[in-house]
Specification:
single chain; about 250 residues; alpha+beta; 2 domains; two-stranded antiparallel ribbon; 8 strands
């Protein structure tokens, strides 16, 4: 990579994998003047080091459009949560921070700024905390719901989901809107977009997934990334950070 990016990513232990997608860290973020974050269908808890050497803790909701990374942050550690964690680990709704975020207490989960210097140790520390928060019981329908959505890369209808998990279509959409601030269909479109990224990175600019046609494919990619598949493939100035490190995921 042309820029001095220091990116790390690991998958969680199986015991918490229903709730956590991955742990990651990125250093030297200030090297990226036009850094863009694109939707990935996860909720991020971020511990950041500012240019003033302060710890900033923030929770980011789901995204349905691209956004620019804040340049006052130099390094960060991220816990990318699967949606199931919103209710069972964080015990809140993120509907009000769709395409946004909020600042949390700087002592959240007893993480301090020095912890950001040791990625492996911080992953272990956060994993232990998350494990301690897992409830003894949860709604099995919801776990199965997300298993089916992820396995299909979002290419599954609400009608089929409803039948397989024995939960009404109305209740499923009510659940999504209450906890995440968007419909199931909108969420599935994000996952399908994500599944398209490896193909786009390889230069396959025709739809490889279940898009209606080329025009529909281009429209969806533009909506979620802000650019056409061709522009995303070029990734001028390495501005799409997630696209840069996609092979790590």
């Amino acid at each position: 990579m042309e820029k001095n990016i220091n990116f790390k990513l690991i998958k969680p232990d199986k015991s918490i994998s229903d709730y956590v997608y991955c742990f990651s860290s990125l250093q030297n973020l200030s090297d990226f003047n036009e850094a863009v974050i694109i939707p990935n269908g996860r909720i991020d808890l971020i511990f950041s080091k500012t240019k003033d050497n302060l710890l900033l803790v923030s929770l980011l909701g789901l995204e349905t459009k691209p956004k620019y990374a804040k340049q006052e942050v130099t390094n960060f550690f991220s816990v990318s949560f699967n949606p199931l964690a919103v209710e069972y680990i964080l015990n809140l709704s993120v509907a009000d921070i769709l395409n946004g975020g909020k600042i949390l207490d700087e002592n959240f989960w007893d993480i301090n700024i020095d912890d950001l210097n040791d990625f492996d140790n911080l992953c272990s520390k956060v994993s232990e905390k998350i494990h301690s928060l897992i409830p003894k019981k949860n709604d099995e329908r919801k776990r199965k719901l997300f298993d089916l959505i992820f396995e299909s890369n979002g290419e599954i209808s609400i009608k089929e989901l409803s039948k397989k998990i024995v939960w009404s279509e109305r209740q499923i959409n009510r659940y999504f809107n209450h906890y995440f601030g968007l419909s199931l269909k909108a969420y599935c479109n994000i996952l399908r977009f994500q599944a398209s990224l490896p193909h786009i990175k390889e230069g396959k600019l025709l739809p490889q997934l279940n898009f209606t046609d080329q025009s529909h494919f281009i429209k969806e990619v533009k909506k979620l990334s802000g650019v056409s598949p061709k522009e995303l493939f070029k990734n001028e100035n390495d501005r799409f950070l997630q696209f840069l490190v996609y092979n790590e995921q």
